[in-house]
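Agenda item 2: heme C complex prediction
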Amino acid sequence: MRRLFAIIAVFFGLGLAPVLAAEGGGEIEKRDWSFEGVFGHFDKAALQRGFQVYREICASCHGLDYIAFRNLSALGYSQAEIKAIAAEYEVTDGPDDAGDMFQRPAIPADRFPAPFANENAARAANGGAYPPDLSLIVKARPDGANYLYSLLVGYDDPPADLQMPDGMYYSRVYSGNQIAMPQPLFGDDVVFALGGDTSMEALAADVTAFLAWTAEPELESRKRIGIAVMLFLVVMCFVSYGSMRYIWADVEK
Ligand code: HEC
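Presented output:
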């Protein structure tokens, strides 16, 4: 039986190997993230830095549809700061009394406005490729945080024998090794008001943390509740064992 399994495994392995080799990409670097594990939590300073990277670099192509400005309070911003951040954006509102849509400065209750009017406009500006909304991207890709980080730092010159089509860039990570997103981070792309590492790796890690938060803002409370529930169950375990002993104490064996 075991031999049969071995034969099947080799058969499938051989069948799959050339497919995997032909696909390319997938060189994912594993990192330790503060938000992983049972006691996972977000580092607010990193989230604020990552938000700045998103705003100054990624936002020109990628939307953040599911996040409203008021959600930024979780990053440690005060109400006044959130109002000021929102006011820097314009959103479409309406219709007004004449039936026309109009532009107005955003308020904390608004969501981040999308960089393009619609998908066709986004594709037209990006050589036919669609920059996906980033709100949920960390959940939408397997091993999301490591994948995103690796994608951002995974650009390279193409091997000499590979002819890259126009508007495509070589990536060690993206499946097929060709991605339509030009390398977004090079290091020193932003200036942090409070200082901090602005190497390409540090910026990629910060924006990854920020996008892990947008994908699951309730992560910290979920983990806290999980720990509380486990503690409760452990205590209840002892209580039920004690009461079982107590109830059955008088029954002869
Ligand atoms: C100049 C426009 C542009 C900028 C700036 C940009 N991107 Fe992209 N991005 C794209 C395009 C276009 C695609 C689609 C790529 C494709 O389909 O080959 C993409 C795809 C992606 C993907 C999806 C990859 C996948 O697995 O499908 C992620 C994640 C991403 N970008 C993250 C970012 C982050 C984070 C930043 C900021 C640090 C950023 N991008 C900046 C244009 C951009």
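Discussion summary: The CA atoms of residues 27 and 52 lie 27 Å apart.
Owner for follow-up: CH.
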